[in-house]
Amino acid sequence: MDPHLLRTYVTVARLASFSEAARDLGYTQSAVSQHIAALESDLGLPLLTRRPVAPTPAGERLLEHAGALLLRLDAARADLERFTAAPRTTLGVAASPLALTARIVAALPATGVTLHALPRERVPVAVATGEADAGLVDGIAAPSDPLRLPDVAPLSATPVAEEPLAVVLPDHHPLAGRPGLRLDDLVDARWLDAPAAGIPLDRLRAVHGGPAGRGFRPGLRYDGTDTRTLAVLAAAGHGLALLPLSAAQGATAVPLVSPRLVHRTELLVPAGAHPEAAGPVAEFAGRLKR
After folding, report:
1. Which of 95, 129, 170, 196 is the most exposed, having the fewest neighbouring CB atoms within 10 Å of its CB?
2. How many angstroms separate the CA atoms of 190 and 122, rounded?
3. Which residue blocks in the chain are alpha helix, DSSP H?
4. Pairwise CA distance, residues 284 & 180, whole Å
5. How confident is the model at residue 278, as a pLDDT?
């Protein structure tokens, strides 16, 4: 299966238009049509209906494979390009918002750094494809357990921070005076739906282990990445939020005592030592260990 043809197919399916895909890819419309025809011929199946432009059932199934296939190809190309790249003097870091604690931010070099704030699921992809030299990704886990990261490419993950979790709620909330809270006590509460800035609700459901889709009802949805705004929204009563204790400073926050979970941050770098990237990345990693 030719990856160029596959990339064209994914673009046509995403845009639902041969002409829009041609503009997006820098091809002529006839070239795009030829790519799709060649891929359909190779697979022996129709992948798209033409009016309207939409994936067939076989095309939908191909889309389930295509993203991972193209990502691994991009990651392989980026990994090999590192062997011939010039020595790096700058550092690009991709980070999920909750990974940027005060201690980690203080460890960044004073100059020569570009910091990319990304959703947590995009951080491993950015490192794998060479968009960033290193990544900082966060999540919740049992104490000392590694994070469950998507298998996008060979990456090396090093723990750099681990801290308690706390539930942020309004001052007047009936549970605000408790010394600790259990997740079981909060299943029926309304939570802020803030997948980029906070702990995603589907992750809370997963660690709780209750029936699929039960509880943790969404209140206000926040699509931003500012964790301080998330804490303010929780304090104002728009929904509860689960945050690392350091991010909950200044708000009414009660420690989570059950289940035993922590907020964990890991440093991601491409697996294997590449001399051209070792300087900036190694310096940053060394600062994080101090």
Report:
1. 170
2. 27
3. 3-15, 18-25, 29-43, 57-81, 102-107, 123-128, 201-208, 227-235, 275-289
4. 36
5. 62
List, for residues 54-66, the tens digit of each pLDDT value: 999 999 999 999 9
Burial label for 181, CB within 10 Å (0-12, 13-18, 19+), is buried
Instruction: Please count the residues of the chain.
Output: 290
Non-local CB neighbours of 53 within 8 Å, separated by 6+ positions: 12, 13, 16, 17, 18
Confidence of residue 162 (pLDDT cuts 50, 70, 90): very high
Structure-block tokens of residue 58:
């076989």
Of residues 133, 30, 118, 19, the one with CA closest to residue 79: 133
Mean pLDDT of 144-166: 92
Q: Which residues of 100-127 are buried (b: 16+ CB within 10 A; e: fewer)?
A: bbeebeebbeeeeeeeebbebebbbbbb
Taking each helix axis from N to C terminus, what angle separates 3-15 and 18-25, rounded to the nearest 10 degrees?
120
The pLDDT value given to residue 275: 46
The answer to whether 4 and 35 have CB atoms below 8 angstroms apart is yes
The Cα–Cα gap between 102 and 107 comes to 9
Q: What is the pLDDT of residue 282?
A: 84
